[in-house]
Amino acid sequence: MTITSPSVTDAGRRLTQRHADHPLRGIGLIIVSTVFLACSDTMAKYLGRTLPPIEIGWIRFLVFVLIMAPVVLMSSSASLLRSVRPKLQVLRALALVASSVLFISGLQFLPIAEASATSFVAPLFVTALSIIVLGETIGVRRWIAAVVGLIGVLIVIRPGSAAFDPAVIFPILSALAWAVTLTLTRMISGADRAIVTMTFSALVGFVALSALVPFVWVTPSWHDIMIGVLVGLASTMGQWIVVLAYRYADASVLAPFTYSQLVWVTFLGYGLFGEIPDVWTFVGAAVIIASGIYIAHRERIRRKQPPVPAEPYPSP
């Protein structure tokens, strides 16, 4: 699951404007990233048959740390560990860990397509957090889109019916944690470089999960270790390609194509686990996706609007 939001800083906007001139390249990269992320989620579900979610997350972040280690070691200074807003970096990393572990927990009980469709509710949480944390003003149309997205979630999970599974709380909480991650990313983006954020994510995530994994440890087989390494590699590659994609196109252009991940997980879920999503999963997913695309569209319009000039003080 990868849903990103644009930077709200002027510097971030200027950087996007310089690079966002190859939308087809950006779209191609974002679609490739969803393939990697879908493979990561599918392998995590497969690994969940033998290992607990915290241990799977620990292996994932261990691979992340090993990938980042050469970058940190080759740095001429400790600049990659020096943050202007270290507390926010730590909170962001912990939210990222929570999102990862909660989603993997949901995969143990839910079809992968249903878990992925439910997790697409993250942009709706971002809308709400933008008001609470960032003090943004949200228009009526974006609120309506958010409500429509929640209706889509209800269509997927169908509370009160025989198809309802309480385990849907895991991808919903994962989406909330991911929304917190994105909101904190927006707060940090103007202060720290992206590589600093990635370093904090890797190290804090690995340390946090290392403190928890002894309580749930199951000795993995060599087969489990191999799959776990592939989970970490696929996840890291997917996230890295996302960063590349946003160099070539605006978030509002790429947002619709991030939902192509649902296509890949549906095929992989059927091929590996024999899971066939019912029609209501697709209907609910379509409603959620339409809501997310509209929210991205309204965000693009809001960003293009010139700032409202402050009212001049009345002359005495």
From TrEMBL:
Keywords: Membrane, Transmembrane, Transmembrane helix
Coiled-coil residue windows: none
InterPro entries: EamA_dom, EmrE-like
Ranges where the EamA domain occurs: 25-157, 167-291
Transmembrane spans: 23-44, 56-81, 93-111, 117-135, 142-161, 167-188, 195-219, 225-246, 253-273, 279-296
UniProt-recorded name of the protein: DMT family transporter
UniProt organism field: Rhodopseudomonas telluris
Lineage of the organism: Bacteria, Pseudomonadati, Pseudomonadota, Alphaproteobacteria, Hyphomicrobiales
